[in-house]
Amino acid sequence: MTSKGLLYGMGNPLLDMTAVVDEAYLQKYDLQPNNAILAEDKHRPIYDELLQNDNYKISYSPGGATQNTLRVAQWYLREPESTSFVGCIGQDTFGDKLKACMKKEDIRTSYLVDPEKPTGVCAVLITGGNRSLVTRLDAANEYKIAHLVLPATWSLVTDAKFYYIAGYFLTVSPDSMIEIGEHAVSTNKCFSMNLSAPFLSQFFKEPMKKVLPYCDIVFGNEDEARAFAKDFDLNTKDLHEIAKKVANMPKKNSKRSRIVIFTQGASPAVVFKDNQAKEYPVLPISAENIVDTNGAGDAFVGGFLAEYVLDKDIETCVTNGMHAAHMNLQVSGCSLPEHQ
After folding, report:
1. Does residue 238 have an active-site annotation?
2. Low-confidence spans in the chain with pLDDT less than 50
3. N or C: which terminus of the chain carries fewer CB neighbours within 10 A?
4. How many domains, the chain?
């Protein structure tokens, strides 16, 4: 069976700027060591500071949650253009870098190119084994549904059978997410989303509430799950209970029950499927082998989906997700080894 075009992703294409900093640097900008935020005005100087100070040895890599997940899934699937990705970039060098990298990694893209705004960037600030993500969306924030419904872009949607969109896109184009969700429901295809960051359920609760009914799979980590439970009045902090309640929230496609997956760093992942929760332990890794936690969650989803789109059982999917996250923890950023 060919896997070409099987998995479609849409999100915020970013170029990651990764640098090792100290705790004082995070405090200077009021940042938390293991968090993800959108840059406010007070954070704007970070990007130039990193560029202008030779002490920060910056590494660049494609970033953005959905884009990372698609890259990992493609790495496992191997067949060229098994995955496709849509988002908005700028008409600049960073945008050209992203296009070239995605082409090299055999991912089909349909970027909306904004001539006015620069390509989005994410400062990945590493302190020990933690990372603080500060994202400046710029062009990524300019995606429009008019681009999605163009025949060339929409054909990527109709060709696919599985859809994955990180929750960050709720801040950009929830109407595009709903358009794809409607298609998924009407054709009985699988639509999945990630809770992505605690701030989303708080500040983008309404769009999240509109997109959730389309979701056949919901991913998240323990912090995002508990923030969601608080913001959606689920009245529990227990991950098993949260997963059950999220699984039983209103759903448009009654032909398949919702799967909910919450990762917890070094603790077991909680998977709620077919009305029961099960825990899956992570692959052991010593602290000295952890280079960077950035992208581990995205890698888990990519590894999971690479098996899920091939109709593998849930244990196989979760195991592959764990393998992808384990591999990712030992490198800087969401980078993948060359295939032998």
Report:
1. no
2. none
3. C
4. 1
